[in-house]
Amino acid sequence: MHMSLLDFYKGVDISFLPQYLDEGMQIRDFDGTPVEPFTLLKKYGVNAIRLRIWNKPENVPESKGYCNLAQTIEMARQIKNHGMRFLLDFHYSDYWADPAQQKKPKDWESLSFEELKIAVYSYTRDTLLALDAEGVLPDMVQIGNEIRSGFLFPDGELPDYERMVELINAGIRGARSVGDSDRLQIMIHLDQGGRYFYLKEWFSKAVAWGLLDFDLIGLSYDPFWHGTFTDLKESISKLSEEFQKPVLIVETAHAWRKSANGFIDETQEKIAGVEATPQGQRKVLDLVMNIVASLPDNRGLGI
To answer: How confident is the model over 32-55, as pLDDT tens digits?
Structure first.
């Protein structure tokens, strides 16, 4: 995969945007001028957008019904119109999925394991066919969100690698039925980007259990949770070398101010070694981008 610096992903996840706009949020440039969100992003060098999709968010009141297929198509249209690349993040849940919770969609709760595999396959395929029909097929898809502890609990919960892999493979097959690697890149996304030990174990075991071919490794890396910057560099260098896959950091963050409720406070600043200020935030993003860009053979695709 040959790529120039122009191809380096400088992406943002703006899945919350429709909700914020509906709730009256105003988007302004630094000088206070109201501006259309995508125009603003493009002006400052953003070239890729990630969106999450929830199966039936209306089943979970807290979601307020956002991140469904219709809204995803609408947002995807704007992404394509602005010439940006598009990463679609399948949570396979009606609401947030992460290492602590991979809650099955309500509609799938009573399915047998065999039926669940069919549901994962057809849902993935049908969602992508719907996007393709509108001319907005993603460039990349994540089969699951931060699936380091498994997928679709309890069926695909680790340590049951065998069943987890069968479910992930159903998603991969669904995506491959819509587009091969040239049209649609398939990503596996885990958290703990700086912890090589966890990541190596997961990928080694999943591959041993027959994980189907995928194109990209996606990782979450927060300097206050997932290891030091040196850990990150070591982790992604070894991982991309060992599994011969390019790496994207698909979630990274640092606070630009401390928050009142203590989510980000001195403890997090100390662990990250960077202050929660606008300059600190910039420093973290620059560091993470440089670490990813420094991977040999252009295996670091961006953030």
So the answer is: 999 999 999 999 999 999 999 999
Determine which one of 166, 251, 269, 275 is catalytic. Answer: 251
Q: What string of DSSP letters covers 179-223?
A: --TTT-EEEEEES-TT-HHHHHHHHHHHHHTTPPP-SEEEEEE-T
Question: Exposed, middle or buried, 293 (CB in 10 Å: 0-12/13-18/19+)?
Answer: middle
Report the C-alpha gap between 66 and 44 in whole angstroms.
Answer: 27
In the structure encoding, which two tokens stand for residue 227, read together? 């290891």
Specify whether 234 is catalytic: no
Helix (H) or strand (E) holding 301: strand 300-302
Mean pLDDT value of segment 57-81:
96
Question: In degrees to the nearest 10, what's the CA dihedral of 90, 94, 97, 102?
Answer: -110
User: What is the pLDDT of the chain when averaged over all its residues?
Assistant: 94
- Alpha carbon of residue 220 to chain centroid: 8
Report pTM. 0.94
Mean pLDDT of 185-210: 96
User: Is 115 tagged catalytic?
Assistant: no
- Inter-residue contact 3 to 301 (CB < 8 Å): yes
Residue 191, CB half-sphere, CA atoms under 13 Å: how many? 17
- Marked catalytic residue, from 146, 166, 269, 275: 146
Over the stretch 153-194, which tens digit does the pLDDT of each residue have?
999 999 999 999 999 999 999 999 999 999 999 999 999 998
Three-class SS state of 265? coil
